[in-house]
Amino acid sequence: MQQIVDEVTGVLLPLLKEKPFALFGHSFGAFTSFAVADALKKIHNIEPVHIFLSGASAPYSQMRIKAPKRSELSDDDFLTWMISIGGTPPELLANPEVLKLFLPALKADLHVVENYRCDKPDSPFLSCPVTCFDGKDDIPHDLQAWKDITSGDFTVRLLDGSHFYLKDSQNETILLDYITKHLETSEMDYL
Length: 191
Description:
With 191 residues, the chain is of the alpha/beta class. It is 50% helix and 12% strand.
């Protein structure tokens, strides 16, 4: 994860220093957004105007720490799990040549996420608002644990669907409207 954070901040830092920014991350992206926000605050003393996290428990939550490690499943069991959560076109998962190319990468990405650990913050390191989204039918995530990262407003929004709820066009519209509204409000605070 540190390598990912270093690459993201290395590329984006010049832009992030110039104007207000927000972070959005879903699943693996939620952990990446959190880790980037943490590094930006600790190293550069800058933070987003809002952070939007989706489809993931806080990295230090007991629910997440105790979750099964799916990256360690056999390839067949891993495929069964991938099919069950949706989000990947079935024709890709049924194509042996595609699987040969992408299965190792998918498992490696999941391994990074499942093994990413950090301690619960002693006190919030952010002051910006944090909003957590999740699908009502996804496996339960400890969204409330994300509150520990901010002294700012904290909101949880549950939308219809499972882990890839955000692929639904109605949910996409809800997300974009919500994020746009909150960023416009944040922008006014900076004018």
